[in-house]
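Dear colleague,

Thank you for sharing your sequence with our group. We've completed the structure prediction you requested, and as agreed, I am returning the results in plain text so they can be pasted directly into your records. Please verify that the sequence below matches your submission; if there's any discrepancy, let me know and we will rerun it promptly.
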Amino acid sequence: MTIVSLHSRGALRTKGHLDDGPGQDFDQNPRIDNDKDMAPGQDDHARFARLVLPHLGDAYSLARWITGNSADAEDVVQDACLRAFRAIGGLADGSARPWVLTIVRNTAYSWMRKNRPSAVMIVEDLEAVEAAQADAGAPEDRTPEAALIAKADAACLEAAIADLPTAYRETLILRDVQGLAYREISEVTGVPIGTVMSRLARGRNRVIKTIGRKAS
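Please find the predicted structure tokens below.
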């Protein structure tokens, strides 16, 4: 049974234990339901609609940037929705966005391991390098690089971002497009905040250089 259709999604813009892919261990504490009058099982559907569905635009956007393909992104999000529904009972009320994006990211990498294993190897090699080079002292203020990126032509910017290594690309999208805080990006990607900052800085610099070369 299809839980949700993606054909009518809007503009594109965690805690249960996931069974595969990079990620975190999430809070499995029993939830307290406020929907006392619902039949068994209906409360999960209501929580899914309230906590997960509002974030499908961001979910699709992240999946598309990771997979590089709209059709593949739809498959990833559908699978992620099934995983989110199964785990919805362990999600506490509050901001579900990082939780949803974590499931989407892990689902996307599971899909990549199955369909494009060489691409995932590149990402994992990059993570090893970043773990050794991360600088946790960088501020979270908006940088000149981020401001220049914001002013770039949309088509040129999208092409430059698409050329980034996957780990840089997802970090830049989560921060500069979807507006997540460093702490939230750390939760979604499962890497230290210092690594998030390092990837973001390197990703922005690469995008600026690419845009500069095309402009010249």
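Summary note from our side: The radius of gyration is 18 Å.

Kind regards,
the structure core
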